[in-house]
Design a protein that fits this description.
twelve-stranded mixed beta sheet; single chain; five-stranded parallel beta sheet; 2 domains; binds magnesium ion; 32% helix; binds threonylcarbamoyladenylate; alpha/beta; 11 helices; Rossmann fold; DHBP synthase
Length: 352
């Protein structure tokens, strides 16, 4: 399959209407189109068409029990597809939509089992990104879209990442530049009595609790699950975001971390491996290593979060086999950042 790649202006998508019409035609005919959002790129298909949705699983190599997020372009579009919207859910919709928050509702029969992974709930997201919304509007139906990476790889924050993973497996990529937040949306389950955070993101637990009071947090957000334990978001059980390199997080006070990483790098170099270090602006000049990748400013967690997946992909691009990374503070967006980094490292953490 030849994958069509077209650039669009994500601030004024109307000026590229022809590209969106072409994408809409492809998706109406059951095809797959990757598109930009403010979190990561999505791989879209018609959420109401089981055959189209199955193609997403095939292209990504995704297990079929891992449900997809359904994307809309207006709040009013959700009503045919969800049931029993609680007052708290309405408050969250008012506060955070459009934006990087996905909510889990009880579903109606219009959502096929292929889209919801056989569950009786459905994940809905109303993205802020104008190109995403323009595309959904032109399609005229809700769009099911997981992140547009091959299953297990870091999520794509650039069209080039999508191309690397899925070229010739999908019909089209709409290139709308880089994804602003760079981490996938916050997922909150509002289908039960007490809302529950299933995946942390740039809208933080604190921000949600400011709007609706205390919420629960699924164990999978905070720690590695034991064998046999199941997260509420099926996708949280899979190894994720992994570059080919082995990632090791070194935690502790920053001076000890730098010393420890320098010690480990020196030791490993004898083993003749290609070693890298993920460093910050503050520490980049303190490492003795040929491959230093700068992830951002230690005092700007948003910047670090938005660079994380690109940096993980760069580890592969450089052909590294082992990469040491500093750890980051887990408050606010740091919870989402460290959740992704720990998964990328397979929870391999050393204390300095
Ligand atoms: O930011 C995002 O959310 C991006 C963009 C493209 O919108 N999408 C994304 O999709 O990250 P994906 O498929 O990579 O992650 C969806 C997560 C998975 O962990 C999945 O298990 C969970 O959402 N999920 C989907 N439907 C669910 C449901 N009904 N109940 C619980 N978890 C659900
Ligand atoms: Mg994903």
């Amino acid at each position: 399959m030849n994958t069509i790649i077209k650039k669009v202006d994500f601030i004024n998508p109307e000026i590229n209407e022809d590209v969106f019409l072409q994408a809409a035609l492809i998706i109406k005919n059951g095809g797959l189109v990757a598109f930009p959002t403010e979190t990561v790129y999505g791989l879209g298909a018609n959420a109401l068409d089981p055959i189209a949705v199955k193609k997403i699983y095939a292209a990504k190599g995704r297990p079929s029990d891992n449900p997809l997020i359904v994307h809309i372009s207006e709040i009013s579009e959700i009503y045919p597809y969800v049931k029993d919207i609680s007052e708290k859910a309405e408050k969250l919709m008012d506060a955070f939509w459009p934006g990087p928050v996905t909510m889990i509702f009880k579903k109606t029969n219009l959502i096929p089992a292929e889209t919801s992974g056989g569950l009786d709930t459905v994940a809905i997201r109303f993205p802020e990104n104008k190109a995403a919304r323009f595309f959904i509007k032109k399609a005229g139906f809700p769009i099911a879209a997981p992140s547009a990476n091959s299953s297990g790889r870091p999520s794509p924050t650039r069209a080039s990442h999508v191309e690397f993973d899925l070229n010739s497996k999908i019909d089209m990529i709409i290139d709308g530049g880089y994804a602003e937040f760079g981490l996938e949306s916050t997922i909150i389950d509002v289908s039960g009595e007490v809302p529950c955070l299933l995946r942390p993101g740039s809208v933080t637990k604190e921000m949600i609790e400011d709007v609706i009071g205390e919420i629960n947090v699924d164990k999978a957000v905070l720690e590695k699950l034991e064998n046999g334990e199941k997260p509420k978001a099926p996708g949280m059980k899979y190894t994720h975001y992994s570059p080919l390199a082995e990632i090791i997080i070194v935690n502790g006070d920053i001076n000890s971390v730098v010393d420890k990483i320098n010690f480990l790098v020196k030791e490993r170099l004898i083993e003749d491996k290609k070693i890298g270090v993920i460093a910050t602006e503050q520490t980049k000049d303190r490492y003795f290593c040929d491959n230093i990748i700068i992830i951002g400013d230690r005092n700007k967690p948003e910047e670090i979060a938005s660079n994380l997946f690109r940096v993980l992909r760069k580890c592969d691009y450089l052909g590294l086999s082992k990469v040491y990374t500093e750890a980051f503070d887990e408050s606010g967006i740091g919870l989402a950042l460290m959740n992704r980094l720990k998964k990328a490292a397979g929870y391999n953490i050393i204390y300095a």
